[in-house]
Write a structure and sequence with these properties.
By secondary structure, this protein is an alpha+beta fold. It has helices at 7-10, 30-35, 56-63, 82-89, 103-111, 117-140, 147-164, 171-182, 195-214, 225-237, 241-270, 273-280, 287-297, 328-331, 366-383; strands spanning 39-43, 49-53, 68-69, 144-146, 302-307, 311-313, 316-318, 323-327, 388-389, 412-414. The strands form three sheets. The protein has a five-stranded mixed β-sheet.
């Protein structure tokens, strides 16, 4: 063992999650994991060793296997960060993403109509208007901006908050709370003294209380959007109001994933000007290009699970009680499936990528995410054809490894 080796690395189970050097590419440590095969071992922050699934076929098969549980309150569930451990300690059950069937299927049926193709198509004019308004403000602000704060987040958060049915008068303050919760590392509170964690926790409880109030009978404001649809189910189905509030909170989490993907996709296009030429010309981004950018970024990389029984996979045995983390980034870089996987190729047929997950927990809002990405990129590059980075690409910061998302955290641009 050298002086630079950690015990986990010497044992062949490197620390996980890992930092990305480039916001839309694999962390450097993923190269060895990719070479290790479909399953390998990694070590979490608390010293626990878990299985990491990086093979495309193995990942899809395991994400369909009911013997792998998403129950975030299971005592053996792998927590990737201290905040996830806190959720388990405080018995914070996450609807949709933190439950298994049949509970998951029942919860998903309640919200699926809000994300259907027709509903998303009806939202497109509002998303387009928001994108144009944000670009107008961008151009009026001067010659430089952080595209995350000025464009990607307002578009993604605004769309999701409107879909939820938050009254217009409350949307600005609600969006501020949402950012404190979902992107705490971008806030001004110091992480060294726990400030970010405290701020995120306060935001979580504030949002939870607010959503409960929206779902309480006798509220003076009209109920619209997803909140209105869920409220109509409370009496007939005898649903716990807090479960519905938490469902809305989980849906809200998709806003940061979308914002990160938009910003990371912009960076990728700026670094590949020959491929961005078609987008700059004003042509709508084809579906394959949207999927290719989503594949490349893989913003929601780590999908944790716990084994409820022994599972044979790729010549290895995952034992009951073992923690398992499926990496969508590694699945999307599997050389058996993707040729020159690290390259951006907008002509690639990338519709089978794993960035939205797979199986019963496949991303509920993927239709909405695709629409936002297409509209955001088409509008931005058409209206700001001179868009370019304001700093060298190597200085564009990525989210830290312990954040909920992977990708660009700030994108200084000029035009």
């Amino acid at each position: 063992m050298t002086a630079l080796d950690t015990p986990s690395e010497a044992e062949g189970s490197p620390s996980f999650p890992m930092e990305r050097d480039c916001p839309y590419q694999m962390p450097p440590g993923y190269t060895a994991l990719l070479a290790a095969g479909p399953l390998s071992r990694v070590t979490l922050y608390d010293g626990r060793r878990v299985w990491l699934v990086g093979g495309y076929d193995a990942g899809r098969r395991l994400l369909l296997d009911p013997r792998l549980s998403s129950d975030n309150l299971h005592p053996a569930f792998p927590c990737l960060t201290p905040s996830q451990d806190e959720q388990r300690v405080h018995r914070v059950r996450l609807p949709l993403v933190g439950v298994d069937n049949p509970v998951h299927a029942r919860q998903r049926r309640r919200v699926t109509p809000a994300f259907g193709i027709r509903r998303v198509a009806a939202l497109r004019p509002d998303i387009e208007r928001t994108a144009r308004r944000l670009v107008d403000a961008l151009l009026a602000s001067g010659g430089t901006a952080d595209l995350v704060d000025a464009y990607a987040r307002p578009l993604a958060y605004g769309t999701t908050i409107a879909l939820l049915g938050v009254p217009e008068a409350d949307r600005a303050s609600f969006a501020e709370l949402a950012q404190r919760l979902l992107a705490p590392d971008d806030n001004t509170a110091g992480a060294s003294d726990g400030g970010d964690d405290a701020s995120a926790q306060e935001a979580f409880f504030a949002i939870r209380r607010y959503l409960n109030e929206l779902l309480t009978p006798g509220a003076s404001h009209p109920r619209t959007g997803l909140v209105g649809e869920l409220f109509a189910r409370i009496a007939g189905e005898r649903i716990d109001r807090d479960e519905l509030a938490m469902t809305c909170l989980v849906v809200l989490g998709g806003a940061e994933t979308t914002a990160t993907t938009i910003a990371s996709a912009v960076l990728a296009l700026l670094e590949h000007p020959e491929q961005a030429r078609g987008v700059r010309s004003g042509r709508a981004l084809p579906a394959d290009a949207v999927d290719e950018l989503t594949r490349l970024v893989s913003a929601s990389d780590e999908l944790p699970r716990v084994a409820l029984a022994d599972i044979e996979c790729a010549g290895r045995t995952i034992r009951r009680g073992d923690g398992v983390v499926v990496s969508t980034m590694l699945m999307n870089r599997d050389p058996a499936v993707w040729s020159d996987a690290a390259a951006l190729d907008l002509r690639r047929a990338a519709g089978r990528h794993a960035a939205f997950g797979h199986g019963i927990h496949q991303c509920l809002g993927q239709n909405l995410a695709r629409a936002q990405l297409e509209i955001a990129l088409t509008t931005l590059f058409r209206r700001v054809p001179g868009l370019r980075l304001a700093v060298p690409a190597v200085r564009v910061p990525a989210h830290p490894a312990h954040a909920q998302q992977s990708g660009v955290s700030a994108l200084p641009v000029t035009w």
